[in-house]
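User: Here's a structure from my thesis project, written as C-alpha cells. My advisor, Dr. K., wants to see whether a designed sequence matches the one we expressed. Can you design one independently, without my sequence as a hint?
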C-alpha cells in the first residue's frame, strides 16, 4: 500500500462522487424504502454513512476516533436536499483535513478506541473500504427499487 496522500484523496473524492451520483437519481419518497426485515430505510442508510464520514474526518484531524457522533439536522433521513447539503459540508471538511496531512502524518497513530490503533494512512484505507461497502449496499437498494444504477457505480462496484 504505497499510495500517496494525493492518490488517497482522489480515491476518497471518487467514492464521494459515486454517492452523490446516486443521490441525484433518488427522490424523497425513495428515502423511505426499506428492503424489509431489520434493514434501515434508504434515508437511514445515508444518514449512517454521513455520521461515519464525520467520525473518520475528525479521527484524521484529532487522531482519536469518536464513534458516538450522530447528526441532529432535520430531514437527513427524509429529504434529498438536506442530505445533499450535509454531504457537501462533510466532503469539504474531509477534503480540507486530507489536504493538511503531510507525509509524516501518514505514519501517526489514530486511536480507534478499545486499545486499537491504526496509522492515519490505514485509517483512510479503512474509510475507503467503508465507502465501498456502503456503495455495495446501495446497489441492493437500487435493484430493489428497480432504479437504474448510476454509471459510476455500475462500472466500479457492480
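Assistant: Designed independently from the structure alone:
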Amino acid at each position: 500500500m504505497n499510495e500517496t496522500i494525493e492518490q488517497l484523496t482522489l480515491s476518497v473524492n471518487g467514492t464521494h462522487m459515486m454517492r452523490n451520483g446516486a443521490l441525484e437519481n433518488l427522490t424523497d419518497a425513495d428515502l423511505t424504502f426499506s428492503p424489509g426485515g431489520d434493514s434501515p430505510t434508504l434515508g437511514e442508510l445515508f444518514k449512517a454513512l454521513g455520521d461515519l464520514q464525520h467520525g473518520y474526518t475528525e479521527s484524521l484531524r484529532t487522531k482519536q476516533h469518536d464513534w458516538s457522533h450522530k447528526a441532529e439536522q432535520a430531514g437527513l433521513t427524509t429529504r434529498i436536499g438536506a442530505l445533499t447539503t450535509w454531504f457537501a459540508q462533510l466532503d469539504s471538511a474531509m477534503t480540507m483535513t486530507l489536504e493538511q496531512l503531510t507525509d509524516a502524518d501518514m505514519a501517526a497513530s489514530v486511536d480507534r478506541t478499545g486499545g486499537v490503533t491504526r496509522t492515519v494512512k490505514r485509517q483512510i484505507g479503512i474509510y475507503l473500504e467503508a465507502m465501498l461497502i456502503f456503495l455495495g449496499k446501495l446497489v441492493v437498494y437500487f435493484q430493489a427499487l428497480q432504479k437504474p444504477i448510476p454509471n459510476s457505480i455500475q462500472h466500479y462496484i457492480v
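When you compare it with your expressed construct, this may help: The beta strands are 109-111, 117-119.
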